[in-house]
Structure formats: structure tokens, C-alpha cells
Amino acid sequence: MIPDDPASHPPRRDDAGRRPHDTAERPGRGRSIVMILAVAFAVVGLLSLAAILATAFVQGTVWPGFVLASYFCLPIAFLLMVALVVWSVVGRRRT
After folding, report:
1. Rounded CA gap, 57 and 42, in Å?
2. Could you tell me which residue, 28 or 14, shows the higher pLDDT?
3. How many CA atoms lie within 13 A of 79 on its CB side?
4. Which residues, including other chains, have CB under 8 Å from residue 78's CB and lie 6 or more apart?
């Protein structure tokens, strides 16, 4: 640093000791859990759908568990992803 350069100021922090834009940069613990659940439900639903298609391709009998998993997991994953989008929009409107 050159002696004529002004010293940089430390970033401002709120009462909790965080910078004001920290909440927008990192998802919170709850948001991370919902995100992981959404991905897990989507993966299980897509794998069960692939199992249904593979079983139908070889003209076998489809196990009802695969059908139930695809019927429930895919819509749940979609609703969780919509909830994450709404959560993000509400969070951005507050800042």
C-alpha cells in the first residue's frame, strides 16, 4: 500500500455480525434442506419412471411400487421446487 492511498474500511455489519448481503449469497439451513429434499424426490421419481419404461420395454409386469413412487415423488419434487422459487422471490423483495 502506498502511503497516499486511503485505508480501506471494514465492511458494514448488522446486529448479528453479518454483512447486509450475506443472506442473499448463501441459502439458509432450511432452504438447503428443502433443496436436498426436492432433488432426492426428483431423482427417486425419475428412477422409478425409468424402471417403469424399462419394464414396459421388455414387456414385463410393472411393480406397483414404481408407479406409486413416480405418482407421488415427481409432484412433491415439483412443489418443493416451486416453494424454493417463491422463497427466493420473497427473500429478494425484503432486501
Report:
1. 22
2. 28
3. 5
4. none
> Which of 21, 22, 24, 32 minimizes the C-alpha distance to 89?
24
Residue 94: the pLDDT is: 83
Look-up of cell digits 465492511: 11
Q: Is the pTM of this model over 0.70?
A: no
8 contacts: CB under 8 Å, gap ≥ 6: none
CB 90 within 8 A of CB 30: no
The residue assigned the cell 471494514 is 10
Q: What is the pLDDT of residue 28?
A: 82
Written as one letter, the residue type at 16 is: A
Distances (CA, A) of 69 to 36, 37, 61: 17, 14, 16
